Amino acid sequence: MSETITPTKTRKVPAAVTLTQGAEARIAHLMAQAPEDAIGVKLSTPRRGCSGLAYSVDYVTEEVGFDEKIETPGGTFYIDGASVLYLIGSIMDWVEDDFTAGFTFENPNAKGACGCGESFMV
């Protein structure tokens, strides 16, 4: 009696964070000006501010095993492995107007934020 073996199906998992065209363009701009040893830009959520967590975007010089890696047209974008659970389903954008410029985040996991907008809680 022979068994029929069903092949394993592989599906592509969506990225934890969706990058808008504005965010991708800003990553490309950052990588064009990056230090020579930078391999990409990394998003993390360090503990900071009155609500507990903040968004931080920095250059990265080496890959870390549990970080999520997203290839964009302008360079590689990493998400800190310890931060992924706080960011799943988020949309990251770059917004610039006459008075401010910066990355913005629509995060469905954020349960609140401090009054100054510096930090968020989950």
Task: Indicate the topology.
Blueprint lengths: L16 E3 L1 H12 L7 E5 L2 E2 L3 E2 L2 E5 L7 E5 L2 E5 L4 H4 L2 E7 L4 E6 L5 E2 L6 E2 L1
Parallel strand pairs: 1-8, 2-7
Antiparallel strand pairs: 2-5, 3-4, 6-7, 8-9, 10-11
Query: Structural class, from helix and strand content?
Result: mainly beta
Shape: globular
Strand residue content? 35-45%
Major pleated sheet:
4 strands, mixed
**Average predicted local confidence, pLDDT:** 86
Q: How are the strands of the largest sheet arranged?
A: 5-2-7-6
Beginning-to-end CA distance, first to last residue:
54 Å
- Radius of gyration, taken over Cα atoms and rounded to an integer in Å: 18 Å
Oligomer: single chain
Spans of at least 5 consecutive residues whose pLDDT stays below 50 are none
- Portion of residues in helices? 10-25%
Q: What is the gist of this entry?
A:
With 122 residues, the chain is mostly beta strands.
Question: Can you offer a commentary on this structure?
Answer:
- The strands form 4 sheets. A 4-stranded mixed sheet has the order 5-2-7-6. The protein has a 3-stranded mixed sheet with strand order 1-8-9.
- Helix content is 13%, strand content 36%.
- A hairpin with a 4-residue loop joins strand 8 and strand 9 (101-106).
- It contains 2 helices and 11 strands, in the order E-H-E-E-E-E-E-E-H-E-E-E-E.
- The chain is globular and about 70 Å long.
- The model has no long low-confidence stretch (mean pLDDT 86).
- The longest helix is centred in the first third of the chain and has 12 residues, at 21-32.
- It is mainly beta.
- It has helices spanning 21-32, 84-87; strands spanning 17-19, 40-44, 47-48, 52-53, 56-60, 68-72, 75-79, 90-96, 101-106, 112-113, 120-121.
